[in-house]
Amino acid sequence: MNIVNQQNRIWNGNFILITVGNGLLFVNFHMLVPTIAMYAASIGSSGGEIGIIAGIFALSAIVVRLFTDALVGRLGKKRCLFLGLLTSLVATAGYGLFPTFGGLLTARILHGFGFGLSTTFAAALAVEVIPPEHRGEGVGYFGLGNTISMGSAPAVGVAVFSAFPPQILFALASAACIVSMTLFLLARVPERPAGQVKKERISLLHHFFEEGTAVPGVISFLFGFVNASVNTYLPLMAEEAHIAYAGLFFVSGTLFVFLSRIVGGKVYDRHGPFSVMFPGVLLYSVAIFMICTAHSPIYLLCGSVFYGLGAGLLMPAIMTWLFNVVAPARRSNASATYYNTMDLGTCLGIVLLGTLAGHVGYVAIFYGVLAVMGLYIAFTLWAWKSGQMTDRRTPPSGSPVP
Q1: Which of 49, 315, 348, 355 is a good FRET partner for 395, with 20 to 30 A between their CA atoms?
Q2: Cβ distance 207 to 69 under 8 Å?
Q3: Domain extents for the chain?
Q4: In angstroms, rounded to a whole number, what is the distance separating the alpha carbons of residues 94 and 174?
């Protein structure tokens, strides 16, 4: 008997397997984020080539998600997930087997394809085993594996790359992928059989944005833009401002992401998206303001508290909202919308802010990010006032979710 139906609990066997499997999928990703550039430099790639290798990953992940609708109709969610994991595994092994720019670029494109599929369908499977009345809380817990790996895997990857031949790093990243596949294989998830999904004509725009998800998609895009500024340019800003120990910002921030994820999902399930989204945007705005005005390591570290609390509220709330506004058969596409809009905002933020930083400096660009946060707040308030910030599970007048 399915444990979800039996006890209606979040922490059932299937959910644990999927959550840990997703965490290991992100261990594979985060171990390689800082080390791929180091590896490319070690095999003689130029600065321009390293930039291409770094940027092509997100682009290929976005491209492959345009085909999720066709793939899920033919293969089903679980087979699509395994296709993504297998592609990621082949690509990870390929990094060490083909130590040339062309080989690394090809492997990076394949890894983007695999990661795009894996993340999309891991989330789509997770929502199937979360009780509907606890979806916000469950999605928050589901992302904890990513949060933990984000705080630890990059450091492990750099340490391994610095102490051993690169093949050891790629072997460890491959092992994480293999264990992830095993855990997903053990999970039992009900889904519509492949080939039974009703075929619909879908526009190119709706391959990128699932129909009816424009408002949460814009909020996801804006979050990706501002989050990219912090993750990419905060160390350079700290160096420009002569602030030491900037790396502690992310260690502290990850801890508070962890804490706010646990609380935010429960609030979402009781009161709907605005109750989590608006405090999250305000907290993140305070963090950006403190980054702009940072003058010491302690002050910057205090900013990381607001960064972690804001990010931990926003990310699972956006994903839950997207899942709730689509029909169950369209959840894979809602997951693709979440990752596509987030990745597009991330890519645009990195390119635009990096270009701007070349003219005005890294401290100054965060004042531009603060202006974007003002737009973010205004859009969130508009969505709420206009009745856009609801989902089909939001309870009336604070009453319990049926």
Answers
A1: 315
A2: yes
A3: 1-188, 205-392
A4: 10
> If you write DSSP's letter for every residue of 59-86 in order, what string do you get?
HHHHHHHTTHHHHHHHH-HHHHHHHHHH
Return the CATH number of the domain spanning residue range 205-392.
1.20.1250.20
Indicate if 205-392 has the same CATH topology as 1-188.
yes
164: part of which helix (H) or strand (E)?
Answer: none
The set of long-range contacts for 235-243, using a CB threshold of 8 Å and a minimum separation of 24, is 236/357, 236/362, 237/291, 237/294, 237/362, 237/363, 237/365, 237/366, 238/294, 238/300, 239/362, 240/361, 240/362, 240/363, 241/294, 241/295, 241/363, 243/294, 243/295, 243/296, 243/297, 243/300
CA distances from residue 380 to 12, 317, 340 in whole angstroms, order as listed: 34, 13, 20
Q: What is the pLDDT of residue 305?
A: 94
Coil, helix or strand at residue 217 = helix
Place of tokens 């294989």: 185
Q: Which residue, among 57, 64, 21, 54, has the nearest Cα to 177 in the 3D structure?
A: 21
Which class does domain 1-188 fall in? mainly alpha
Which DSSP symbol is given to 134? Answer: G
pLDDT in tens, 81-124: 999 999 999 999 999 888 899 999 999 999 999 999 998 889 88
Is the pLDDT at 307 greater than 80? The verdict is yes
Kindly report, residue by residue over 167-176, the tens digit of the pLDDT.
Answer: 999 999 999 9
For the chain, report the end-to-end CA distance as a whole number of angstroms: 23
Q: Is 201 left (phi over 0), alpha (psi -120 to 50) or beta?
A: beta
Alpha helices in 293-361 (DSSP H): 297-324, 331-360
Q: What Å distances lie between residue 255 and 170, 305, 310, CA to CA?
A: 27, 9, 12
Q: What is the pTM assigned to this prediction?
A: 0.76
Amino acid 377 reads I
Among the ranges given (208-217, 304-313, 369-378), the one the predictor scored with the smallest mean pLDDT: 208-217
Which of 325, 314, 311 lies closest to 379 in space, CA to CA? 314
